[in-house]
Amino acid sequence: EGHRLETEELRWDNDLGKVVSDSFVRLTKGESVITGVGIESDAELRTYVIRSQVEGVLQEKDGVLDDF
């Protein structure tokens, strides 16, 4: 769906059934960017939680925010 996830470390946790990382993460969609430390997500990046130090810049295009 146009999401891009960047991180130094990423792994699959069988017990949680999720993609996880304890490292710095950067999620980008369009011109919008969210960063933080640590993530848990489903494999498709549709539902995720960034654990700490969350910051973001959401950009508007034609009166609509990029959806995260």
Distance N to C terminus: 10 Å
Tell me the strand percentage band.
over 45%
Beta strand count: 7
The helix fraction, in percent, is under 10%
User: What is the overall pLDDT average?
Assistant: 88
User: How many strands, which pairing sense, and closed or not: the largest β-sheet?
Assistant: 5 strands, antiparallel
Q: Poorly predicted ranges (pLDDT <50, ≥5 residues)? A: none
Shape: globular
Rg (C-alpha, Å): 12 Å
Q: Report the structural category.
A: mainly beta
How would you characterize the overall build of this protein?
The chain has 68 residues and is an all-beta fold. The protein contains no helices and seven strands. It has strands at residues 3-7, 11-13, 18-29, 32-41, 48-57, 60-61, 64-65. The strands form two sheets. Strands 1, 2, 3, 4 and 5 form a five-stranded antiparallel β-sheet that branches. The chain has a two-stranded antiparallel sheet with strand order 6-7. Strand 2 (11-13) and strand 3 (18-29) form a beta hairpin. The chain is globular and about 40 Å long. The mean pLDDT is 88.
